[in-house]
Design goal:
Elements lengths: L9 H11 L2 H7 L6 H23 L2
Helix pairs in contact: 1-3
Length: 60
């Protein structure tokens, strides 16, 4: 089964990892080294950012 292509850019993932405090783990072990909880928090933060972006676009 083929892996799905990521929607988030690498730059965005790194930015969020830095913000959430586990970027050092990513640098040392790669994305596979992060905890499931951290990955979930990263997705949650990405959704929050997307929602904020959509709200800003809707403002006149």
């Amino acid at each position: 089964m083929a892996r799905r292509q990521g929607i988030m850019s690498d730059q965005m993932k790194e930015e969020i990892a830095k913000e959430l405090g586990f970027y050092d783990t990513v640098k040392q072990e790669g994305w596979g080294g992060i905890k499931a909880k951290d990955a979930g928090n990263m997705v949650k933060r990405a959704i929050e950012m997307a929602e904020q972006n959509m709200q800003e676009k809707d403002r006149p």
